[in-house]
């Protein structure tokens, strides 16, 4: 006997509630992780807690992560092209162009001295930040939550892909306030890039997941080697 799944279309008020709750659970997860005393658990829990809520909302609406872009198949050449595009745009637009504009405007650079002191020459911390944080909570977690869940929910709320891309980029940026004003503005541009690439590649999360992981890997490795934030 074939089982049918009933899709439930959330109301606009319901979408607002889902978005608000998931966003509010990010600092809750960060705090819970920090209370354990394990430094890497803060960013991990900051994604795990809201992702659990997002998973429940999707399931309640008769959906799964595959429906919002995770695990969708795409030709290898297309995947590589969009992954490379997203990675290059982050460095060419967000880092080089926007970074130069902010510097010319007199804004101080991102302060990553504390993280560099922690990572420089410390292989254990480097691996802990590289694998469970950079690739786990950042690449997979943030892309699933922000691009996969929030962008789609914002689009359903606003009925506009443009507003949804801007909205998810703003949320993404505000979740990085610890990087200061310069960091928030640059992360906002990164969020715009990843949001646009996500939509342009057919709403497949894999290119932005891998691009995000590559960008963070380069940054973490640079700090580990003592070269500063790249």
Overall radius of gyration? 18 Å
Residues in helices, as a percent range = over 70%
Give the SSE order as H and E letters.
Answer: HHHHHHHH
Residue stretches low in confidence (pLDDT < 50, at least 5 long) are 1-6
What portion of residues belong to β-strands?
under 5%
Give the overall shape. globular
What's the total count of β strands?
A: 0
Structure description:
Helix content is 75%, strand content 0%. It is globular. The protein contains eight helices and no strands. The N terminus is likely disordered. It is mainly alpha-helical. The chain has a domain of 152 residues.
Main traits of this protein?
75% helix; disordered N terminus; 230 residues; 8 helices
Task: Describe this structure in a few short sentences.
Helix content is 75%, strand content 0%. It has 8 helices and no strands.
List the helices and strands and how they pair.
Layout: H1 12-35, H2 41-60, H3 76-104, H4 113-119, H5 123-158, H6 161-174, H7 180-200, H8 205-225
Helix pairs in contact: 1-2, 1-5, 2-5, 3-7, 3-8, 4-8, 5-6, 5-8, 6-7, 7-8
């Amino acid at each position: 006997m074939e089982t049918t799944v009933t899709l439930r279309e959330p109301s606009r008020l319901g979408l607002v509630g889902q978005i608000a709750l998931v966003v509010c659970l990010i600092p809750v997860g960060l705090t819970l992780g920090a209370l354990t005393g394990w430094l890497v658990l803060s960013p991990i829990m900051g994604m795990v807690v809201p992702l659990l809520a997002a998973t429940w909302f999707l399931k309640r609406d008769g959906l799964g992560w595959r429906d919002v872009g995770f695990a969708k198949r795409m030709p290898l050449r297309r995947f590589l092209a969009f992954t490379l595009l997203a990675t290059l745009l982050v460095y060419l637009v967000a880092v080089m162009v926007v970074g130069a504009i902010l510097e010319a405007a007199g804004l101080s650079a991102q302060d990553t001295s504390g993280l560099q002191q922690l990572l420089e020459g410390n292989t254990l911390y480097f691996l802990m930040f590289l694998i469970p944080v950079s690739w786990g909570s950042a690449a997979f977690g943030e892309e699933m939550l922000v691009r996969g869940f929030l962008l789609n929910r914002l689009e359903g709320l606003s009925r506009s892909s443009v507003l949804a891309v801007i909205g998810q980029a703003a949320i993404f940026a505000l979740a990085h306030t610890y990087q200061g004003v310069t960091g928030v503005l640059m992360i906002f541009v990164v969020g715009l890039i990843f949001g646009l690439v996500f939509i342009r590649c057919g709403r497949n999360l894999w290119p932005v997941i891998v691009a995000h992981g590559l960008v963070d890997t380069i940054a973490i490795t640079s700090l580990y080697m003592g070269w500063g934030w790249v």
